[in-house]
Design a protein that fits this description.
With about 300 residues, the chain is an alpha/beta fold. It contains 9 helices and 13 strands. Strand 3 (about 90) and strand 4 form a beta hairpin.
Length: about 300
């Protein structure tokens, strides 16, 4: 299969992988949850769902310096073929998704010609190393192992963890003492299970082999809560498979020890000009509200 290349300078309309996503905006700070246990044991009462939240990972007090953008002539972005809603093949056969649209916005901000090329995920690092691309924008998690091979921009999103309950048992806040004796499901062997074992020691942990089994357990009432990747859970909650059974309880958990440093754009080792240029452009998009607009086009139920 030949890689698919789309000239980004042409400007394509933003496209959501799920139809009918509502757009509502309230910018909220993303903060870690799950503090030390307290003496209180009474659960918080159910509350209405929180307004839409948009993550922000840029400190307005730490504005990046504008690099010499005139030294950039083209940026060849690489992304993977099938990871909706972040990257996927659109109905017209061209690359589409959150990452593709973000790449287009970055190119507009830097004012440079760009392309995006779709490749299998496992080939992306080799493609960068062999100079078949300049930057990987494919929801690549920043890890020590990958840092040894490529350099990363600042994170442009994170994959937090969250609790989900049935709609008649939503909690405004989740702390270890609130879930004492509660049945909590998680994927066996996952970082989410490890976090529950470390932090929610008085809860009754139920491991499941797959996402489908985990979510079915909550729908059936076999568990009181499930805990997992908030991005995939947000789409499940908003999709038909959930049968409108469930909703998020409490806020996001973003402890990097368990849930990673975030998602960055990867560039070749030592390519500081491109990395700094992308960091500058990411900050500018957030400052102008364009990142928020993009996020809200893809996420009607916020992972945050």
């Amino acid at each position: 299969m030949q890689p698919q290349i789309l000239p980004l300078s042409a400007g394509r309309p933003l496209r959501s992988v799920r139809a009918g996503l509502a757009v509502a905006a309230l910018l909220l700070a993303v903060a870690p949850s799950g503090g030390p246990a307290r003496a209180q044991t009474v659960a918080k009462p159910a509350v209405e769902a929180a307004p839409q939240a948009v993550p922000g990972f840029w400190d307005p007090r730490r504005r990046p310096d504008r690099p010499d953008l005139s030294r950039l002539t083209v940026i060849r972005f690489l992304t993977e073929t099938d990871y909706p809603p972040f990257n996927f093949t659109g109905p017209d056969g061209n690359p589409a998704g959150f990452n593709v649209d973000l790449a287009r916005l970055l190119c507009e901000e830097i004012k440079v010609t760009c392309t995006v090329q779709m490749r299998r995920f496992e080939t992306l690092l080799d493609a960068i190393a062999s100079n078949r691309g300049d930057a990987i924008i494919a929801s690549l998690a920043v890890t020590p192992q990958l840092r040894a091979r490529i350099d990363f921009t600042d994170p442009y999103y994170r994959a937090p963890a969250r609790f989900v309950s049935r709609r008649d048992a939503v909690m405004a806040e989740v702390r270890p003492e609130y879930l004492e004796g509660k049945k909590i499901g998680a994927i066996a062997g996952s970082s989410h299970e490890a976090y529950l074992k470390a932090m929610f020691t008085d809860a009754e942990l139920h491991p499941y082999p797959s996402d489908d089994a985990l979510r079915l357990a909550l729908r059936r009432g076999d568990v009181d809560f499930i805990f997992g990747d908030a991005i995939s859970l947000a789409f499940w909650i908003n999709g038909t498979d959930s049968a409108e059974c469930c909703a998020f309880s409490g806020g996001p958990f973003v402890e990097s020890r368990y849930f990673g440093e975030g998602i960055g754009i990867g560039v070749r080792k030592g390519n500081d000009l491109l990395r700094q240029s992308l960091n500058w452009a990411l900050f500018r998009l957030w400052e102008k509200g364009r990142y928020t607009d993009l996020w809200l086009r893809y996420f009607s139920v916020s992972p945050f």
